[in-house]
Amino acid sequence: MWAFINKLRSPKWFYTLSARLQPWFWAAALILIVTGTIWGLAFAPADYQQGDSFRIIYVHVPAAFLAQSIFVSLAVTGLVFMVWKIKIADMAATVMAPLGAAMTFIALFSGAVWGVPTWGTWWMWDARLTSMLILLFLYLGVIALRGAFASRDSASRAASVLAMVGVINIPIIKYSVDWWYTLHQPATFTITGRAAMPAEMWLPLLIMVLGFYSFFIALTLMRTRSEILRRESNKRWVRELAEEAH
Amino acid sequence: MSLRLQARNLACERDDRWLFRGLDLDIRAGEIVRVEGPNGSGKTTLLKILSGQLADYEGELSWGGRPMREARESFLANLLYLGHSPGVKAALTPLENLAWYQALAGQPGGEAARFAALEEVGLAGFEDVPAAQLSAGQQRRVALARLALTPRLLWVLDEPFTAIDRDGVAALEQRLVGHARAGGGVLVTTHHGLTPCAELRRIRLGGGAHDGGI
Amino acid sequence: MAASEGALPKEVAVVHEEPRGGLAVAVWATLKRDLVLLLRRRSEVLNPLVFFAIVITLFPIGISPDPALLAAIAPGLLWVAALLAALLSLDSLFRADYDDGSLEQLLLTPQPLALLALAKVAVHWLLTGLPLALMAPVLGIMLALPAGSYLVLAVSLALGSASLSLIGAIGAALTVGLARGGVLLSLLVLPLYIPVLIFGAGAVQAAIFGDGVLAHLAILGALLALALILAPLAIAASLRISING
Question: Could you tell me which residue ranges the ABC transporter domain spans (chain B) (predicted)?
Answer without folding.
Answer: 5-214
